[in-house]
Amino acid sequence: MSTKRLVMVVEDEAGIRDMISTLLIANGYSVVTAENGHSAITLIASYNPDIILLDLGLPDMDGLEVLRTVRHWSAVPVIVVSARGQESEKVEALDAGAGDYIVKPFGTEELLARLRATLRYTERMVQGSMVSD
Ligand code: CA
Asked: Which residue, 8, 1, 40, 2, is CA-closest to 120?
């Protein structure tokens, strides 16, 4: 791995945001954080992260709105990290373009494993499309 993967953490609760950021940095990722939906959309457009961890319960707008907005211009992989654990909520997020869904509270090893899995899958897709071009 030549360059660090950039992870955007969208989370309004400072404690969780700091915990995830510290975990990611300790595991070799670069991190950009956003504490609400509007700044998330702006930062995603300017930083072009490799992957996004997206909370759904944000103060200014629903995380699903952030996801649908970003999907207008970007195929960046998104993992929803939410306290909402209902099946219907997971289905809605996955249908809106999320690649995975993690329910809070989550284990840090699980979060890292899902992050790696989603990045691997995305890279295979990119390589596959380059081969067929
Ligand atoms: Ca929240």
From this structure: 1
